[in-house]
């Protein structure tokens, strides 16, 4: 069979017949697919690769529609400011489909520990793993992950990728056997199952018409690539809660870290407009400065520390201090709006949502993309079982099982992240004292930290 393969982000080698140079004419003769995936970003491309490698779906034709132009991957000396913190569950998924070998051949950083603290008290949480098999997370540039995914997609005969696929219309009539996707200046494609992986402004979700709970945080996430003043082990991810939002440093290598700073729109604008040196000075002060604290909070946390020390469960063990920033990589500063969102339903007959199309969270816990990768693993298993049993892939019974499993996991995680955001969004002394005491107790209880880490890895 002759097919044309276009990559959503990286180059795939085209196999083109001389008599089929016209793209639209070629596809008009064969426009039905078992599965159509809308959106070729991290979630959509990984989903296509995962389903394409599922032996139980080997006879299914999969189409991936990506609106962006194809790009060839070129490794830059400088790190990208778009990175993701991938948990062990995501690592397993990418490793199982052969993607991690490509990431490993390029670059990534392993997070061995995590330290969280705030500016209003000395309370802190310290996660540390000395076991190579129990890494906390992996920091990978998004373009490196995409490179690995598209390298594997190029090997699959049952997955077709169309680049610059601008969609003009969906027909998701539940009374019809197939869904229809119409491209601008292109053919109409049909499928048994349409999967929306096209982000929080998802066209697929909007067409489904499902109710979504969402709000704008009126906060911006400022990102940048930083050079440390001195080379070090740099295997710790640091996060400090400031009065106007959390600031996080994610390791990239022994000399560089990636910044994610949640702050007000005006402060974000100021941070983007100041000189690199002023930015570095503000950043170092925010990470290490000791603002004036409330006396009651100070004394309350000290007294509780004494109690914990008496019980021989110190709340300050393994405390470390973040590295000092030396430089900000030129032109690496950028900002994006932050918000919360969750769909009351992820599915309807023949249609399902994954990733940001279904749920959106604050980046303070680094779990947003991992929730999406969890969606992929779950749906892949369910569709494999459906195909094995001879069921229609678009059956609402199977899709409801996906929705049920993922909402049972996603909703508690999203509520916990939202709770942290709101809990640390106030400087009211009684609240600061209570949360500080809670953090001290939590940090002293290793089994509880282990349980939380395991839940965040799913």
From TrEMBL:
EC main group: oxidoreductase
Function: FAD-dependent monooxygenase required for two non-consecutive steps during ubiquinone biosynthesis. Required for the C5-ring hydroxylation during ubiquinone biosynthesis by catalyzing the hydroxylation of 4-hydroxy-3-(all-trans-polyprenyl)benzoic acid to 3,4-dihydroxy-5-(all-trans-polyprenyl)benzoic acid. Also acts downstream of coq4, for the C1-hydroxylation during ubiquinone biosynthesis by catalyzing the hydroxylation of 2-methoxy-6-(all-trans-polyprenyl)phenol to 2-methoxy-6-(all-trans-polyprenyl)benzene-1,4-diol.
Entry protein name: Ubiquinone biosynthesis monooxygenase COQ6, mitochondrial
Gene encoding the protein: coq6
Quaternary structure (record): Component of a multi-subunit COQ enzyme complex.
Organism this protein belongs to: Henosepilachna vigintioctopunctata
Record-listed E.C. numbers: 1.14.15.45, 1.14.15.46
Record-stated family: Belongs to the UbiH/COQ6 family.
Pathway assigned in UniProt: Cofactor biosynthesis; ubiquinone biosynthesis
Keyword Mitochondrion in annotation: yes
Database matches in Gene3D superfamilies: FAD/NAD(P)-binding domain
Example of a GO cellular component annotation carried by this entry: extrinsic component of mitochondrial inner membrane
UniProt keyword Transit peptide present: yes
Catalytic function, reaction form: a 4-hydroxy-3-(all-trans-polyprenyl)benzoate + 2 reduced [2Fe-2S]-[ferredoxin] + O2 + 2 H(+) = a 3,4-dihydroxy-5-(all-trans-polyprenyl)benzoate + 2 oxidized [2Fe-2S]-[ferredoxin] + H2O; a 2-methoxy-6-(all-trans-polyprenyl)phenol + 2 reduced [2Fe-2S]-[ferredoxin] + O2 + 2 H(+) = a 2-methoxy-6-(all-trans-polyprenyl)benzene-1,4-diol + 2 oxidized [2Fe-2S]-[ferredoxin] + H2O
Membrane topology: Peripheral membrane protein
Keywords annotated in UniProt: FAD, Flavoprotein, Membrane, Mitochondrion, Mitochondrion inner membrane, Monooxygenase, Oxidoreductase, Transit peptide, Ubiquinone biosynthesis
GO molecular function, one term: oxidoreductase activity, acting on paired donors, with incorporation or reduction of molecular oxygen, reduced flavin or flavoprotein as one donor, and incorporation of one atom of oxygen
Residues covered by the FAD-binding domain: 34-284, 338-409
Cofactor(s) named in the record: FAD
Subcellular location: Mitochondrion inner membrane
């Amino acid at each position: 069979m002759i097919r044309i393969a276009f990559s959503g982000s990286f180059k795939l080698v085209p196999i083109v017949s001389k008599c089929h140079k016209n793209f639209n004419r070629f596809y008009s003769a064969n426009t039905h697919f078992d599965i159509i995936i809308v959106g070729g970003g991290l979630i959509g491309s990984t989903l296509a690769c995962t389903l394409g490698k599922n032996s139980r779906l080997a006879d299914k034709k999969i189409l991936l529609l990506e609106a962006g132009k194809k790009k060839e991957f070129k490794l830059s000396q400088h790190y990208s400011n778009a990175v993701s913190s991938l948990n062990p569950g995501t690592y397993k998924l990418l490793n199982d489909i052969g993607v991690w070998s490509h990431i490993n051949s390029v670059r990534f950083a392993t997070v061995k520990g995590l330290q969280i603290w705030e500016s209003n008290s000395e309370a802190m949480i310290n996660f540390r793993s000395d076991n190579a098999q129990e890494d906390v997370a992996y920091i990978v540039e998004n373009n490196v992950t995409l490179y690995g995914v598209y390298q594997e997609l190029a090997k699959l005969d049952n997955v077709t990728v169309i680049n610059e696929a601008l969609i003009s219309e969906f027909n998701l009539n539940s009374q019809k056997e197939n869904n229809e996707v119409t491209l601008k200046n292109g053919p109409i494609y049909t499928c048994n199952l349409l999967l929306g992986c096209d982000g929080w402004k998802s066209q697929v979700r909007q067409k489904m018409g499902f109710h979504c709970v969402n709000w704008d945080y009126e906060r911006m996430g400022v990102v940048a690539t930083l050079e440390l003043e001195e080379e070090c082990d740099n295997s710790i991810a640091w996060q400090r809660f400031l009065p106007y939002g959390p600031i996080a440093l994610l390791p990239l290598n022994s000399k560089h870290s990636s910044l994610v700073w949640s702050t007000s729109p005006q402060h974000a604008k100021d941070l983007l407009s100041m000189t690199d040196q002023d930015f570095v000075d503000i950043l170092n002060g925010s990470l290490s400065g000791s603002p004036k604290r409330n006396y009651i909070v100070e004394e309350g946390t000290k007294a509780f520390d004494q109690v914990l020390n008496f019980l021989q469960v110190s709340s300050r063990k393994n405390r470390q201090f973040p590295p000092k920033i030396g430089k900000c990589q030129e032109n690496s500063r950028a900002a994006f709006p932050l918000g919360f969102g969750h769909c009351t339903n992820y599915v309807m007959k023949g249609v399902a949502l994954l990733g940001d199309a279904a749920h959106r969270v604050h980046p303070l816990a680094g779990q947003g993309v991992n929730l999406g990768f969890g969606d992929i693993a779950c749906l892949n298993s369910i569709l494999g079982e459906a195909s094995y049993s001879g069921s229609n892939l678009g059956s609402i019974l199977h899709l409801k099982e996906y929705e049920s499993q993922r909402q049972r996991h996603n909703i508690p995680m999203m509520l916990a992240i939202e709770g942290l955001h709101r809990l640390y969004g106030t400087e009211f002394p009684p609240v600061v004292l209570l949360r500080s005491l809670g953090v001290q107790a939590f940090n002293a209880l290793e089994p509880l930290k282990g349980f939380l880490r395991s839940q965040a890895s799913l």
